[in-house]
Amino acid sequence: MNKQDYTNTSVQEPPLDYSFRSIHVTQDLLSEKPRTGLRPLRHAKSGKSMSQSLWLNNNVLNDLRDFNHVVSQLLEHPENLAWIDLSFNDLTSIDPVLTTFFNLSVLYLHGNSIQRLGEVNKLAVLPRLRSLTLHGNPIEEENGYRQYVLCTLPRITTFDFSGVTKADRTTAEVWKRMNIKPRKVWIKHNAL
Predict the structure, then answer these.
(1) If the chain, 192 residues long, is cut into consecutive pieces of 10 residues, what is the mean pLDDT of each piece?
(2) Which residue in 16, 85, 123, 129 could disulfide with 55, CB within 3.0 to 4.6 Å?
């Protein structure tokens, strides 16, 4: 393996920042230039970014159609994507495409239009997810919002920019016992 082609996921590259670009569809990212930050973006020989963070906040995205394809065009190692910021868009659901990024540890979805609390269930498959934001979505108004999220995603340590405490976990467990009925296991009578 060529030393320059090696990606060290512990080294944090600057984000690939497409915030405030009035992006309507993910394909628009391919023709937009990312914002420049204090540190320059590093690129692989292929011309793709070495970043592990993708910021798409404050745009007008209402779905993530072609997201995987676009991300693979922008990032040299899309499998190392650790931070996605989709805050302040027009998303009405949590697209399952987000669950394909197994190294994702930070996901910002605040300030969207996510309607159903059950959408959070999709994120349970992300083994490294530690920080999640969902405030400013209609689901925030549902009873047990925080407790439901903490029960569904027990590995997160920061939720809505607030640290998750032991007391939060205890409250969530009590809430779960009082509000979430265990699934009944149906046994076929013929099988007995």
Answers:
(1) 42 90 96 92 95 98 97 97 98 98 97 97 98 98 96 97 97 91 63 52
(2) 85
Could you give the strand order of the β-sheet that contains 16-17, starting from the edge strand earlier in sequence?
16-17, 53-55, 83-85, 106-108, 131-133, 158-159, 162-163
SS3 label, residue 108: strand
Cα 107 to the center of its chain, rounded Å = 3
pTM, 2 dp: 0.89
CA atoms within 13 Å, Cβ hemisphere of 9: 12
DSSP 11-47: S-PPPEE-TTS---SGGGGGTSPPBP-SSPPPB-TTS
Q: Decide: helix, strand or coil at residue 187.
A: coil
Q: What is the DSSP letter of 75?
A: B
